[in-house]
Structures are given as C-alpha cells and as structure tokens.
Amino acid sequence: MSTIPATLEHSVVRGRALTGVALVIGGSAIIAIAAQIAIPIPLTPVPLTMQPLAVLIVGIVLGSRRGAAAAVLYLLEGLSGLPVFAQGHGGPLWLVGPTAGYLYSYPFAAFIAGWFSERGWGSNVARALCGMLIALAVIYFGGWSWLALLVGARRALAIGIMPFIVADLVKIAIAAALLPYAQRLVARVL
Fold first, then answer.
1. Please, which residues have CB within 8 angstroms of residue 164's CB and are 6 or more apart in sequence?
2. CA–CA separation, 72 and 185 (whole Å)
3. Nearest residue to 190 (alpha-carbon basis) of 5, 16, 17
4. Which of 113, 136, 132, 135 is nearest to 175 (CA)?
5. Which of 83, 122, 123, 190 is buried most deeply by CB count within 10 Å?
6. How far is it, in rounded angstroms, from Cα 152 to Cα 136?
7. How far is Cα 127 from Cα 120, in angstroms, rounded to an integer?
8. Distance of alpha carbon 121 from its chain centroid, rounded?
9. Beta bridge pairs of residue 38
10. What count of other Cβ atoms lies within 10 Å of the Cβ of residue 48?
11. Domain 4-189 in CATH 3.10.310.50
C-alpha cells in the first residue's frame, strides 16, 4: 500500500513545481482556518484550537518537507500581520507572546508527522496514533518551554499543557482511527 504523501507526489505533483507550491499554500490556509476555531480557556493565555491537529494532518498529507514548508509559510503570514493566528491575530508580537513556543514548534511537528506518514505509519491505527503522539509531544514541548521562560516550569505545565491533554488526545485518536481509511481512499482515488 502506498502512503498518502507518495500517492500525492506520484498522482498530483509529479515534478510540477506550481502544484507543489499550491499544496504548501493550501496547507498553510488549513492551519490558519483551524486557528480560528479557538476556545479561550480560563486562567491561561493559550486558547484551545484545532491548530495542532491541522498541523499534524498537513504534515501527514503533504509529507515531511511540504508539511514543514506549509507551517513555515503560516508563520511568515502571521509575522507579516495577516490575521492567521488564533482568534484572528497577526503580527510580530504574537511570535514573542505566550503562545510563540507552540507556533515555532509547528514546522517541526509537521515534519515529524510527515516523516512517519512517508514511512507508512498511517496504514494502521496503532502506528498512526504513535506517530501523531510523537509529533504532538513536539508541539507541547515547544509551547511548554517558551511558557516556562515566561512564567516558570511548573506554572507553564499547569497553564500550557494540562488543560489541553484530554481534548488533544481525543482529536488525535479520532484522526488516527480515520487515517488508515483515508490512506486507502486516497490510494484508490488518485
């Protein structure tokens, strides 16, 4: 069985640079849209968003290089002032604020999710779950480490990780359960 990134590369891109660029732009748009699905959480500067899941899915679908490129483009869009960050924010101040660590981790997490996807980890639920949890851990570590610089390690854990674990695990479990089916569907369609 071929992987989603391999199928996409063979059936859609095949040396077409413009198609690759369009996929990266589309991936950054998916992350930006997911950022707008945000729920403020009391006592934390970090909202609950769909961004982490979008970053992982973009990496899984586009592969390591294009997934990371989409996440970098997303950061550049936000840096330029486009309202792509959570709750319609944008501008350079958001890349030094309390959520900056999460944002900076996105290219690395997309790359890791894509790397696992390219190696066929999406073909069964257990491996998909494992790969997605590793990529999510990168996002958590980035967010926690930045917050720890601002508020201390314990407080960063309390306000930057703990409120999000259950929701993120549910999102990851659903995505991991659907990934093998999506991989088979993409292989058949493309």
1. 41, 46, 48
2. 28
3. 5
4. 132
5. 122
6. 21
7. 9
8. 17
9. 49
10. 17
11. no
Q: Nearest 5°: CA angle at 6, between 2 and 9?
A: 145
Reduce the DSSP state of residue 45 to 3 states and report it.
coil
For 69-98, the DSSP string reads HHHHHHHHHHHTT-S-BGGGB-SGGGGTST
Residue 70 CA to residue 64 CA, distance in Å, equals: 10
166 burial type by CB count under 10 A (0-12 exposed, 13-18 middle, 19+ buried): exposed
pLDDT 10s per residue in the chain (190 long)?
578 887 777 777 777 778 888 999 999 999 999 999 999 999 999 999 999 999 999 999 899 999 999 999 999 999 999 999 999 999 999 999 999 999 999 999 999 999 999 998 888 888 889 999 999 999 999 999 999 999 999 999 999 999 999 999 999 999 888 888 877 776 676 5
- 90-96 contact pairs (CB < 8 A, 24+): none
Report the amino acid identity of residue 44. T
- How far from 63 is each of 11, 90, 103, 140, 165, CA to CA, in Å? 14, 26, 19, 21, 25
Domain locations along the chain: 4-189
Using CA of residue 65, residue 25, residue 141, residue 128, what is the dihedral sign? negative
